[in-house]
Amino acid sequence: EPEVTQTPSHQVTQMGQEVILRCVPISNHLYFYWYRQILGQKVEFLVSFYNNEISEKSEIFDDQFSVERPDGSNFTLKIRSTKLEDSAMYFCASSEGRGGLKTQYFGPGTRLLVL
Amino acid sequence: GNSVTQMEGPVTLSEEAFLTINCTYTATGYPSLFWYVQYPGEGLQLLLKATKADDKGSNKGFEATYRKETTSFHLEKGSVQVSDSAVYFCALSLYNNNDMRFGAGTRLTVKP
Predict the structure, then answer these.
(1) Bridge-partner residues for B84, per DSSP?
(2) Which residues of A touch B43 (CB under 8 A)?
(3) What confidence score (pLDDT) does residue A54 get?
(4) How far apart are CA A40 and CA A64, in angstroms?
């Protein structure tokens, strides 16, 4: 069964450093997403991406964040200058279409620790 | 706004006990409703979903019925197993929105 994959599974970085989290969505999916889950808290939406541009973003997704689909398979989340509060599990997801009728399939996550 | 409220955990049950995890929602439109499960050390897996009122989603012995009149989508299982120990998330998604709204999650521990 096709699945969303993410790399790395764990990332430790120093505050102020840039990190890039990578995702390979399911191959025939058109919509891509990033969510985060701070330890012990809710899963929160960050951004959705379609047709090579951001379609929606939350208030969490500020100028420190950017997303890119650099080739036909990868989808990346970049955090330019990490802060301690960016420590979280980051989930990538993809879906065939937009909105509630199309299920979002999640990857296993990347656990980011900012020191 | 659009949101999901789940019963607080943790929930601890003995094997073969009956499980209910309550979930209610608030939405401006007609949401699709989901239950995701997160096993220890893993990501979110779709457990079941329902896209319209009175639909019942089911998978692996779990069931949830979309109740528009009570704005609820409670998760049930008749006989839990140790392997069901995980965190369960209720979520909604609107037709015209891409972001899913998750509940806080309910940690279930099943003891032999």
Answers:
(1) none
(2) 6, 91, 106-109
(3) 94
(4) 23
What are the backbone dihedrals phi and psi of residue A86, each rounded to the nearest 5 degrees, phi first? -80, -10
- Phi first, then psi, for residue A10 (nearest 5°) are -135, 145
Q: 């802060």: which residue's tokens?
A: A83
Is residue B7's pLDDT more than 90? Answer: no
Residue among B62, B75, B87, B1 at smallest CA distance from B33: B75
> How many residues appear in chain A?
115
Cis peptide before A2 (omega within 30 of 0): no
CB distance B105–A31 less than 8 Å? no
Q: Is the pLDDT of residue A77 over 70?
A: yes
Residue A79, token pair as written in the block: 């955090």
Cα–Cα distance measured from residue A109 to residue A94, given in angstroms and rounded to the nearest whole number? 13
Residue to substitute from B8, B51, B93, B98, interface A, most A β-carbons within 10 A = B98
Closest CA to A27 of A58, A59, A73, A62: A73
Please list every residue in chain A whose beta carbon sits closer than 8 Å to the beta carbon of residue B44: 43, 91, 106, 109
**CB-neighbour burial class of residue A33 (10 A; exposed 0-12, middle 13-18, buried 19+):** buried
Classify B82 as helix, strand or coil. helix
Q: For B4-14, what is the mean pLDDT?
A: 92
Q: Is A94 on the interface with B (CB under 8 A)?
A: no
